[in-house]
């Protein structure tokens, strides 16, 4: 009951915060998150002060055994800590034995008096967390990954973020402050580049203290550079890219792709830092499959993909340098799709003209 009340309270607070942020005059601003390493730094400073506050009063010439023997305190503290942890296990076992003896004596006392011993509800044993099996990097494991390499879904992008040229669009920021619902002007290339850096490069877990993101969704019209941004992020991280788009992955598999999809995640765990890339995610989770998309078998990836993504937590030590990219081109909007097709045809003509000009210059 308390948990439900707490959840409702959190939802109301989130809705209230969203309303405040929609109004630029009542926007509370960016909430600075507390660093995960702050407590460790405070403990290290306190430990340093407790150890050295006494030793700093003495001169090295007068008492060298005090100044140069400071490691004794560190060693004794660590050893005592280890001994306490080991002793607690044995103390717990002895206390359980004492409890069993006490219960047996109470049962005898109840029998002598002629009373019925009351039933005791057994304690619910906590679930033992499953210890993940360590990966054995041997020939048998690499043989299991051979089908992935044969399918051609494993690549190593070499594109870097420095190849994305563009500045920040400050006009878009100013207009967004005046009207939060404004859709023009659009953010510049510099804004997109900065967002990719914050969300993907810092969010993979390489830098300690940064908030981790296990999945990123890039939403936008087709042929506008979403795949290039993924390659740039993977190249900046020097990561291995696993392409599980339906055209590359499920369309090549006759049976259900759940087994191979599990191998992809195991390979991503082995070859960290790694990036799993899925283009056209709307085809995987579509309610109605279009007749021209039936050969992709994309709907069979829905259940295993959801399970595998949920099984990875942000604090998972096995996936410390791992991120997933999902692309959605939103092809259901027919009017916009027709406009995109016209724009893409115009682009193709322009690219052909540019290529022809380059050829003429080379000939000259």
3D architecture notes:
- The protein has 364 residues and is α/β, with parallel strands linked by helices.
- It folds into three domains: 1-28; 70-113; 139-332, P-loop containing nucleotide triphosphate hydrolases (Rossmann fold).
- 52% of the residues lie in helices and 6% in strands.
- Strands 1-3-4-5-2 form a five-stranded mixed sheet, with helices on both faces.
- The longest helix is centred in the first third of the chain and has 43 residues, at 71-113.
- The protein starts with a helix and ends with a helix.
- Mean pLDDT is 76; it is low at 331-340.
How many strand segments?
Answer: 5
| Average pLDDT reading | 76
Instruction: Write down the overall geometry.
Output: extended
CATH architecture of the largest domain: 3-Layer(aba) Sandwich
Structural class, judged by helices and strands? Answer: alpha/beta
- What is the H level of CATH, i.e. the homologous superfamily of the largest domain? P-loop containing nucleotide triphosphate hydrolases
Which radius of gyration do the C-alpha atoms yield? 30 Å
Cα separation of the termini: 81 Å
CATH class (first level) name of the largest domain: Alpha Beta
- Fill in the CATH topology of the largest domain: Rossmann fold
Count the helices. How many? 13
Order of helices and strands: HHHHHHEHHEHEHEHHEH
Kindly report the spatial arrangement of strands forming the biggest sheet: 1-3-4-5-2
Protein name: ATPase AAA-type core domain-containing protein
Domain ATPase AAA-type core: 216-319
InterPro entries: ATPase_AAA_core (IPR003959), N-DRC_Component (IPR052267), P-loop_NTPase (IPR027417)
GO molecular function, one term: ATP binding
């Amino acid at each position: 009951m308390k948990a439900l009340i707490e959840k409702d309270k959190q939802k109301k607070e989130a809705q209230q915060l969203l309303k405040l942020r929609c109004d630029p005059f009542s926007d509370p601003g960016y909430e600075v998150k507390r660093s995960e390493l702050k407590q460790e730094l405070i403990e290290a400073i306190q430990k340093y002060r407790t150890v050295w506050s006494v030793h700093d009063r003495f001169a090295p010439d007068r008492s060298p055994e005090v100044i140069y023997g400071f490691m004794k305190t560190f060693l004794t503290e660590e050893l005592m800590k280890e001994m306490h942890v080991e002793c607690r296990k044995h103390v717990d076992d002895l206390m359980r034995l004492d409890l069993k003896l006490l219960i047996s004596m109470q049962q005898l006392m109840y029998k002598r008096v002629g009373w019925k011993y009351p039933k005791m509800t057994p304690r619910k044993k906590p679930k033992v967390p499953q210890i993940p099996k360590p990966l054995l990097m041997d020939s048998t494991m690499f043989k299991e990954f051979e089908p992935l390499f044969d399918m051609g879904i494993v690549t190593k992008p070499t594109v870097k973020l420095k190849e994305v040229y563009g500045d920040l669009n400050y006009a878009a920021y100013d207009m967004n402050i005046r009207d939060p619902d404004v859709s023009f002007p659009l953010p510049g290339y510099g804004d997109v580049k900065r967002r990719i850096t914050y969300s993907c490069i810092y969010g993979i877990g390489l830098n300690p203290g940064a908030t981790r993101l296990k999945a990123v969704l890039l939403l936008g019209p087709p042929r506008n550079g979403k795949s290039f941004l993924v390659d740039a992020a993977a190249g900046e991280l020097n990561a291995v890219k696993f392409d599980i788009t339906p055209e590359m992955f499920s369309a090549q598999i006759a049976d259900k792709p759940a087994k191979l999809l599990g191998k992809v995640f195991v390979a991503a765990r082995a070859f960290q830092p790694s990036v799993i890339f899925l283009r056209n995610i709307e085809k995987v989770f579509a309610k109605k499959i279009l007749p021209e998309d039936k050969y992709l078998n994309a709907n069979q990836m829905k259940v295993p993909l959801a399970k595998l993504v949920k099984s990875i937590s942000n604090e998972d030590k096995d996936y410390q340098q791992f991120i997933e990219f999902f692309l959605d081109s939103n092809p259901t909007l027919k009017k916009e799709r027709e406009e995109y097709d016209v724009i893409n045809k115009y682009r193709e003509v322009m690219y052909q003209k540019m290529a022809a000009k380059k050829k003429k210059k080379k000939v000259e």
